[in-house]
Amino acid sequence: MQQPLRRFKAEFFKALGHPARLVIIDQLREGECSVQELQVVLEMDQSSVSQQLAVLRNKNIVDSRKEGTTVFYRVRDPMIFQLLDIAREIFNNHLIDTQAILAQLGGEGLGDGEALS
Amino acid sequence: MQQPLRRFKAEFFKALGHPARLVIIDQLREGECSVQELQVVLEMDQSSVSQQLAVLRNKNIVDSRKEGTTVFYRVRDPMIFQLLDIAREIFNNHLIDTQAILAQLGGEGLGDGEALS
DNA sequence: TACCAGCATAAAAATATGCAAATATTTGTA
DNA sequence: TACAAATATTTGCATATTTTTATGCTGGTA
Predict the structure, then answer these.
(1) What DSSP state is assigned to residue A66?
(2) Would the keyword Cell inner membrane be found if you checked this record's keyword annotation (chains A, B) (predicted)?
(3) How far is the CA of A114 from the C1' of D14 (A)?
(4) In sequence order, what are the beta bridge partners of B63?
(5) Chain-wide mean pLDDT for chain A?
(6) What pLDDT, on a 0 to 100 scale, did the predictor assign at position A3?
(7) Helix (H, G, I), strand (E, B) or coil at A94
(8) Total H helices, total E strands in chain B
(9) CB–CB of A10 and B23 under 8 A?
């Protein structure tokens, strides 16, 4: 594999490497979503949401469609959901490690029997 | 999903967001690999390889085993290969876009009929 | 035209990441 | 003990990413 392609793949994963962007993609599982709606879900201000969307757009992960003054976003390739599903499985397989790292991150870990979404 | 877990997932993807680290994981498909071997494959100096391995280790993506003075690395959960496989499929589905971005990155794109690895 | 809503982009400050050079650590061996 | 090999960690610095805040653009409507 050539250098540029490697860099490109890395960029792709890097685009997924942000909490807000992961939430955005997860939200888009249910179909199109306007920036406003995302803003509510993410509890972030409009500008920040737009910026994160720009990152996903630049990596061709999402597409946008304008209707009047509102813009709807959707995932370009639904296969990305499979990707996230597998990632979730990996997390579940290593729940114990995950907890350790969460603790490290300053979180409280998961409650008894609580699953990862 | 709580904040800390989101951050953790993001960290996971961020760990994959580096060309060298992707090559390392791909190399580990064939099984264990010593740092030396990785050094050769990556054409990077020892220190840099160790640093990248440290990132993967900190995210629990790889494990290491010491035998004498050499350290062997392996992937913790083979399911990560599935993850990369799906990512590859996504890339292939969007070859044209990919090419555009590669060009943007200064690469030469893919040759005629050349597949992505 | 004037104005507002909904998004996008820009600019600046804070934070994190990547990289290279130097230094440490660990293990085996003379 | 002294030394070499293999790997890890640290340090300093350049770059990139994140976050906030401010500004710009476009489409609808009075």
Answers:
(1) E
(2) no
(3) 43
(4) B74
(5) 86
(6) 72
(7) coil
(8) 6, 3
(9) no
Residue B117 has pLDDT above 70, yes or no: no
Which residues from B are below 8 Å from A90, CB to CB?
12, 77, 79-80, 83
Distance in Å, residue A40 CA to nucleotide C13 C1':
26
d(CA B75, CA A51): 34
DSSP at A107: -
Strand C nucleotides within a 7 Å radius of protein CB atoms: 5-10, 17-23, 26-28
Residue A56 with chain B: CB contacts under 8 Å = none
Domains along chain B? Answer: 3-75 (1.10.10.10), 78-117 (no CATH)
Question: Which single residue is written with the structure tokens 């599982």?
Answer: A29
pLDDT per position as a tens digit, B45-80: 999 999 999 999 999 999 999 999 999 999 999 999
Looking across all nucleic acid strands, the nucleotide with the smallest C1' to CA distance from residue A14 is D17
Tokens 């976003």 found at: A73
Distance from CA of B17 to the nearest CA of A (A): 4
pTM beyond 0.70: the answer is: yes
Range in A23-37, A83-97, B4-18 with the lowest mean pLDDT: A83-97
pLDDT of residue A48: 97
